[in-house]
Task: structure prediction
Amino acid sequence: MATSEPPAPPTGAARTESLIEYPCKFPIKVMGTKVDGLVHAVTLITKQFDPAFDASTIELRESKGGKYLGVTITVNATSREQLDELYRTLSTHPMVKVVL
Result:
């Protein structure tokens, strides 16, 4: 009676595979309380990771009640690591509530 081998665990290479082809334009939505400085802070952080970021492409959307502001940025994504670090940096900013 033959026994079958269990499937091999995924290798590190499998984790780095991505459905995204780099470089590409990648939209990120940042939401925070509508306060002075939110858009400026998001812009400064974004430029750290994409020096060619064009702030004139930012899209803003206020919540229905006007308490929150959605800030959509579109970055030139060059790697998964770049996007991961950008998400982490934005998420830890005190003005930011959510990054999608």
Observations:
- The chain is about 30% helix and 30% strand.
- The longest strand covers residues 24-33.
- Helices lie at 12-16, 38-49, 80-91.
- The longest helix spans residues 38-49.
